[in-house]
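In this supplementary section we document a worked example of the pipeline. Step one takes a protein sequence of length 314 as its only input; no multiple sequence alignment statistics are reported here. Step two produces a three-dimensional model, which step three serialises into structure tokens for compact storage. The input and output of this example are shown verbatim.
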Amino acid sequence: MIIETVDLTKKYGNKIACDRINLAVEEGQVYGFLGRNGAGKSTCIKMLTGLVFPTSGSGTILGKPLGDVSARERMGYLPELFRYQEWMTGLDLLNFHAQLIKLKNKNDQIKRVLKLVGLEGQEKFKVGSYSKGMQQRIGLACSLLPNPQLLFLDEPTSALDPIGRKDVRDIIVDLRNEGTTVFLNSHLLSEVEAVCDNVTFIHKGTVVKSAPMKDLLMDKITLTIFAKEISNELFAKLKNQYPSFQELSDGSWAVTIKSYDEIPMISQNLISGGAALYELTPHRETLESVFLNIVGDAKNEESGYVHQREGFPS
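The serialised model returned by step three reads:
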């Protein structure tokens, strides 16, 4: 495992930010880390990157204990909230970060990351003149400078327009194809759904579910059916086989199934039963609906956990 934690816990006084977090992340995948604001995601990432010390528990990153300096050399990190020196140009900033990490062949690496994030030709402008999207891109470029084996991205597309989000999504997929492991925290669930192989949900500082993405989204499939001449006898037969089978207000029908393999049988039953079948459309469950089912409705719960904010002691 490239990341493995056992009962990783972080407390600030009597407040628990992360409570016995257990993670197992395999190499070469995009791993989604999801939860509501203040759920403990950023605190957990800071423990994994060695920026915050855990109160208890243990873990390994790239085969090394949490906080090991040699492991950090093979990691990249883009935090959710960051500010760079506004008087620096983008090129100055990348040179500065390259010096901090003692990067070899820094000029080649800087050219590579500028092209990768779409800032070629913009590197000589001051960071203070960059738009929010450009600042997000230069931050991503900094995180990619060491050509990391493990990359932590905390809300990497928060300031980007749809084209920028697609660019970042493509970068993440390319990195995975090259063998890089990406640990992704994002509230844009459609982006997570598009790129992640596995997902962990954290709620009030505790892991509540971990599963492969394909398993999460295949738990429930809703089938919308446009058909006429469904007799009472045929309805009773389908209702007996599929208790969720029902007529909708627009005259269509709907049924919940567990597998796409059930679709041909339903179609065959409709036709052999004398129905005129016009359309049959499966709708897979979205990550948004899964998220809402797992972490619940924020309006109906009180925030009994600590909110991550700048300035907490480590």
